[in-house]
């Protein structure tokens, strides 16, 4: 198998103008979560009021003046002029972010036009959902306003298809290799990078643009609010609190993370700046028939599969750490069952920017690369008080995991960014339907 390097990265992050600001805020222990005025305008119809969101204008886009009234879907225009209007005409906000971040990652990688526009270059980008704001307006035009189909425009399909992000990036950069969209709920971002890793490792591509995106959409937040799984009752900066005993749900967030992967030998030969090396990737399913609840057994098998691929001795475990009642504890117990109670730290990036859904795993790979760069562990904000009593499932006869409460693992969870030598990081992400992904990343 070929060794795989990460040679470029870029993204779109809530409440940040660029990668530099994102890095600065991460390691100075800042939260990127804000009150969302649009949500607040619906008053008691929506329980939560906070999100990690970004507007088109904050991310370098504006409404394209096409002369249509507001009930029609918004066309976007790139303020910087990098992305032509013809490409944005088939794109929703998430796809626009994916194109912008892909161009940034390619620039970071230093790939030539000839290399990009070749059969050896692939694209693998996914999302949790998307195109919803545009789709809502299109259907309203037909069903509520009585418009004919020809008045609805020709871009609704391309803006709402599950493949839209990968397709828009591929059309923009004109690669001739693989172009795929991998969807695995909240494991989508990491799963897309993992699939891209395999394409290079098995010699099917020389380089791949990969990651996940999740465009800001009120519809997405409404869906999770209806499930009563979002954080309420806390200030924005305190609302995402993985592992804390008072956590009561995750913060719905939006963003994009894209990385450029390349055959390591080729990257080394051309003198590329190697940000990290992927040691191995493994994914599996819980297999217990539960759509929502995490599985200790499934996560243990995930670790076992990763360990069969490569040597695993992480200095940091980048946890999924959503701030949900059951997910956090099962994950931490699963990590401790594999690695013990000391010798490593657990990073919880969602404590700073919330849960970016289909983009989460990819953005958190970028966080992991920044940890390698700075030799610092990003914090687990708001993990103020850990439960000192056993979980109910720990008292059952069939429980095979650790027998101590969460508080016994206080030393693993830095509440502020922590400087330490970091050589290897294991990234974990999970999704509805019992899908699990794990990737080990090391310094070059």
TrEMBL record:
Top enzyme class of this protein?
transferase
Compartments, as annotated in UniProt? Cytoplasm
The EC number on file is 2.3.1.41
Limits of the Ketosynthase family 3 (KS3) domain: 1-443
UniProtKB keywords: Acyltransferase, Cytoplasm, Fatty acid biosynthesis, Fatty acid metabolism, Lipid biosynthesis, Lipid metabolism, Transferase
Its domain of life?
A: Bacteria
PROSITE patterns (alphabetical): KS3_1, KS3_2
What reaction does this enzyme carry out catalytically?
(3Z)-decenoyl-[ACP] + malonyl-[ACP] + H(+) = 3-oxo-(5Z)-dodecenoyl-[ACP] + holo-[ACP] + CO2; a fatty acyl-[ACP] + malonyl-[ACP] + H(+) = a 3-oxoacyl-[ACP] + holo-[ACP] + CO2
Similarity comment: family membership: Belongs to the thiolase-like superfamily. Beta-ketoacyl-ACP synthases family.
What PANTHER family has UniProt attached to this entry?
3-OXOACYL-[ACYL-CARRIER-PROTEIN] SYNTHASE 1 (PTHR11712:SF306), POLYKETIDE SYNTHASE-RELATED (PTHR11712)
What's the subunit arrangement here? Homodimer.
Q: What is this protein called?
A: 3-oxoacyl-[acyl-carrier-protein] synthase 1
